[in-house]
Specification:
Radius of gyration: 18 Å
Number of domains: 1
Number of strands: 0
Largest sheet: none
Length: 111
């Protein structure tokens, strides 16, 4: 997709939607790890600092992975002066994440 002379907007939107789904899956995996981290690093342990350091390292890694998932292709398209495609990709990704967020909130309210 990236090295073609002509990029179809349908391909860009499809890849943006896929990036949103992958980002949501990554968020779910990180949340599951954070929920289980309480058993690994209990709050009354003398090694509570290890839990805090581990959480901050996870935060940095998560931000880096999220940045690559969401911004790598749009940045590449932007530097090739394909501004419309870059905005379409970001828009599709953010709309997908918003829809997944609404679904999760709706499920939380129903259940």
């Amino acid at each position: 997709m990236l090295f073609k002379k002509e990029i179809r907007s349908k391909d860009v939107i499809t890849k943006g939607i896929m990036a949103g789904i992958v980002q949501a899956a990554f968020i779910i995996i990180v949340c599951m790890f954070i929920l289980s981290a309480g058993a690994i690093f209990p709050a009354n342990s003398p090694f509570v600092i290890l839990g805090l350091v581990g959480f901050l390292i996870l935060l940095v890694i998560g931000v880096a992975v999220s940045g690559v998932i969401i911004f790598a292709i749009p940045a590449f398209l932007f530097f090739q002066k394909k501004y419309q495609e870059a905005l379409s990709y970001i828009g599709a990704t953010l709309i997908t994440l918003l829809l997944i967020f609404v679904i999760f909130i709706s499920l939380a309210l129903i259940l």
